[in-house]
Amino acid sequence: MYGLYAGNVDRDKARRDLAWDYSWFCGGEEANAIHVRTFVENGLGRFLRPSMLRRAGYPDEAKTVPAGWEEAYAAAMEHGIPEPYGRNCQLVYTYMSRGIDQILNDSTVKRLLREGGKLDAVHDRVREILHYRVENANQKMLGNLPDDVRRFRRRVAAVVVVAIAVAFTLVFRHVFKVFYALRPKEEAAERQPLRAGLAYLMMLPALATIAVWSYWPLARGTLMAFQDYNVRGFTEWVGLENFAMVLFSPDFWHAMGVSLKYTVLYMIFGFGAPIILALLLSEVPRGKILFRTIYYLPAVLSGVVVMFLWKGFYGPHGMINTLINKVILFSNSTFGTAFQEVAENWLSNPDTALIACLLPTIWAGMGPGCLIYLAALKTVPDDIYEAAEIDGAGILGKTRHIALPSIRMLIGINFVGAIIGAMKSGSEFIMAMTGGGPYTPYGATEVIGLHIFWEAFGYLRFGPATAMAWVLGSMLIGFTVFQLQRLSRMEFRAVGR
Amino acid sequence: MIISTVGAKHWKTRLAVALIYLVLILGAVTMIYPFLLMLAGSVKSEADADRITPYPEFWFNDHVLFQKYVESKHNATIANCRLAWGVSVPSWRRIELPEPVAPEIIADFGAWRETDEARSLGLLGHTSGARLLPLNARLWRKSMEDKYDGDLRAYCQDSGTMVTDWTGVMPPFEIVGRYRLRSGTEQSRQDYESFKAQRPGADLFFRDPQANFVLDVLSAKYGRTIGDLNAALGTYWRDWDEVLLMKEDGAPPDPLEADREAYLRGTAPLQYIRLADIPASRDAYHRYLAKRHGSVRAYNAMHRTSHTDFTDVPFVAHIDDDPSQRVEWEEFLRDPAFCQTAWISLDGPRERFLQYRRAVCGRDEAAVRATPTLGKIAAAVDYHDCMASSRELRKEFTKRNYLHVLDYIALHGNGIVNTLIYCLLAILTSLIVNPLAAYALSRFKLSTTYQILLFCMATMAFPGEVSMIPAFILMKRFPLWPLLGGVAAMAVTYFLVAKLAPRWRMGRIALSALGAGVLVGGIILPIVLGRDGSQVSLLNTFAALVLPGAANGYFIFLLKGFFDSMPRELYEAAELDGAGEWTKFWTLTINLSKPILAVIALGAFTGAYSAFMMALIIIPDPDMWTIMVWIFQLQSQSHGAVVYASIVLAALPTFLVFAFCQNLIIRGIVVPTEK
Fold first, then answer.
1. Read out DSSP for A438-461?
2. Which candidate from B498, B640, B672 shows the least CB-CB separation from A409?
3. Which of A350, A228, A232, A360 has its CA nearest to residue A299?
4. Residue B484 main-chain phi, psi, to 5 deg
């Protein structure tokens, strides 16, 4: 390999010949004998092919190879087809794995196998899945589409792109109008251009940095949405092709659905947790600082580390199963119940995978999240509570009518912020945990952020990835603007001087 | 307080407080338990990797300690343990405690191990692990560092290896199979032998041909259990221990003779074979040579010798006596037509030990005969050694993964310095750029305040993957001079025009400034400087890491909120006292904003410290890598336990920062309320 493929012996015929001779030798009988002898001496003879062992003169050793390996190998050599090679073929194993994932998780197949004895039906279903997968792979890898379908999709894409552009323009015009109405009453600044100039000068580093490092890549990236960007340089303009592909891609919409599901789950389980924790922590008579530190502990680990840790926990013999089994054993022995022990990998089960990915985020986010609520709860003066108590409010009453309303603004802002965050992010974390989840046939944990990541860095299709990002961004920009509008109506107070 | 001090003794209040404590404690346990698992996991190794416990089991459990000891001693290779003990070992975790052996045998074996001949027969343990770094590997690395005084190139030359840094230096390995294979050059082998001579005998293990014969040959041929063997051969052995490779003198022949002979000739380690040096054998050897080579001339041509006749070729009893005749010697050994069975004898570790015992026991032949197989002795002695030094072992196992990580980081010394510089720069730029902008937005009541804020925060709506590639391209070809020139032109034009044309409205001034900036930055400078002159590559610089994160819309927003909350009266009083803008900024605002600045600094530090994905892409040069990137590299080549240890160490700075600055940070949090 060093010689012939490295290219650095092209000019030297002697070296080329030497490399060729060596390669030829490596395939010959003598090399085979040396190879076999080394393995056999070290006790590893039974891992070699029996034919190799026999050729090298070790017929006894050949008998120690497990039966069936030789036949399997011969069958593979005779009936196997070599790997395909062509456009996007570096992904062919990914697509094949998805097919296998789908077969393993298919409910029809599982049901048929449970009922037993219906192997023909199982074969038919498997063949159906495989057929679908072949179509899918052809479409995605080679872009095979009939022409009229292509034209229709392009038209739809054109409409959508125009709609996005119009929506953005309208939104920004509206925003500018609203902010114009909100501007500070004193316009003294504008009357002194020099003074205003000083202000702009002070803002210059920040604005320049943001313009250069956030807006310029975004703009340049937007161009990629209309190109078939190839990292190695042969980029060509394809107009609305990317948008067409994205809008009609079931994977994209499924990923959107998964994102929505993820967001909803997060808001239900993860949004309220820091609030409740803050309420509890602010009431605890002693040990506040201790508890605060303990709850902040998970946040000292960086995000991917947390995911890595939890991935181990979710394994078949991980912490979660061990704990559950302990409880089951305990309950079985003392209460006489008959629960089965669990041993599944929570991340491989499409039903539980998404929640499993969510849990670590909640676990790590509780500490820092509750800090800001804690601070806000401190601002409520005690007299209000006493007054309410005198009026007969109990603990729950006081919580519901005083504490929660006092942090209403904060909750409101965080609410929208959490929705935006949950919709668009989470890709690196879920990537570390499941890589997109069991594919059955669509990734059970492939959120839209991860889908874009795969598209961009897995399949190296930056054009469609950017198109997806724009579709997502246009959905979220409305939220962002809404958020900013509300923020502008508030003033801030510092806490705990 | 929802729960007020009034009525605190009421049972309902007490119940509520108890409930609160309960929930908090449960929650705290779920916070801490994974940490405990992680800490316990960081001191594990292959033997106990899959036991999930919140504390390291081997601290208290001798059995687990023994399993770890055996794993480490046999270089984490199951085959070594099998062939040292002579029993089938399924995995480290299922090793049982061995049967005890008479104390005097243990003492004798321990003494024999210290002799030179034992050291030459034995293999050094604790030198490699399953992607871990055991004791002897660490000591070897240290001894090499001392010998070559840190000069890696000299080490590479002498040892024939090509490592890029000291973390790649590992002891040369030795395999005793049919052939004795050793890696490295003559020099490194010598160093290794002298290193081996200094290590205690307890670190040595021996591959026993008896074990090889029984486990690999007989079991494969006849079956796993002794019953299978008895059934096949019609014998009545009770235990595999009775099936000996070398029978005692005078024992009757048994059906294994053929297998024994085949083993000695074809499979046994050549190191342990000795041929009888008698006239008959010498003669047979010379006849063999004649048959193989044909003529002395052919032999001389092949071996570069100058013998006149085959009878001049010296006969070797042991393969190491004349390495040049290795091939012929082995072929002679294999050939029953020339080499008679009676001439072949085994001279392995067990035989040497028996000799030693004979010398020690003197006339007591019965005691010598009662010596069990080498495997049994080895297992019992291992257990004895482990229990004798259990305290040191526990300490060693606990700290070795951490030493591994610390060594790794320290050897890539630039990592620490780079991280310090990077974090410092990130904090400084964050603390300069963001407060300036926030102060301007807050104190100067511009009409474009909210537009600017929207400008700063609007990009948060888009996922980051989109801009990664263009950002990378931007860093590779950063238009530094056009940018600086354009911005400078813009500022200069603005102030000039504002000064010289005081009647112009703000909009016109701004537009002219913008125009000038674009002209200079976008057109003039690029043409003047040309493409290469105007572009600068920011890869491999701190600028590439620090600049993109210098300004953060969210931080600006927080700071503006904080500055807004400062009372106006303060500034008016300062103005009355004649304070200039700078004083108002520095002495008033920044001084009073320490808490919020602490929050910003913490955010910047956390971001800088844990960033490695972008850092990996932007900085291809290992000299500039930060700690996180090195840890990422380490994780990809290490055992899971080492990964946990690295995570624990990497989390320490963040934890310390938070623990000490908690109160300061809490004070800096700003909360929104209705206007």
1. -BSSSBTT--HHHHHHIIIIIS--
2. B672
3. A360
4. -60, -45
pLDDT at A497: 41
What residues of chain B lie within 8 A of the CB of A319, using their CB? 33-34, 37, 52
Q: Which residues of B touch A195 (CB under 8 A)?
A: 444
Give the ipTM of the model, two decimals please.
0.72
Contact B437 A453 (CB under 8 A): no
Q: Do A213 and B548 touch (CB under 8 A)?
A: yes
Which tokens in the block code for residue B212?
Answer: 């090889």
**Beta-carbon contacts below 8 Å between A and B:** 358
Contacts for B34 with CB less than 8 Å, ≥ 6 apart: A298, A309, A310, A313, A319, A363
Domains of chain A, with CATH numbers? 1-80 (no CATH), 245-488 (1.10.3720.10)
**Between B32, B441, B662, which is nearest A203 by CB?**
B441
Tell me: domain B412-462+538-667, CATH 3.30.360.10, correct?
A: no
Kindly indicate the confidence band of residue B383, based on its pLDDT and cuts at 50, 70 and 90: very high
Radius of gyration of chain B (CA): 38
Q: Which pLDDT tens digit goes with each residue over B167-205?
A: 888 888 888 877 777 788 888 888 898 999 999 988 999
Q: Is A491 exposed, middle or buried (0-12, 13-18, 19+ CB in 10 A)?
A: middle
**Cross-chain CB nearest to A492 (options B460, B471, B562):** B562
pLDDT digits (tens, 9 = 90+) for A92-149: 787 788 788 888 888 888 888 888 777 888 888 889 888 988 887 877 777 666 777 7
What pLDDT, in 10s, does the model give residues A186-203?
Answer: 555 556 777 777 888 888
Q: Do A180 and B447 touch (CB under 8 A)?
A: yes
How long a stretch of residues is chain B? 675
| A184 conformational bin, left if phi > 0, alpha if psi -120 to 50, beta if neither | beta
- Domain ranges in chain B are 61-205+385-391, 209-259, 412-462+538-667, 479-536
Provide the token pair at B364: 């007591």
Contact between residue A304 and residue B37 where contact means Cβ atoms under 8 Å apart: no
Question: Does residue A403 contact residue A281 with C-beta atoms inside 8 Å?
Answer: no
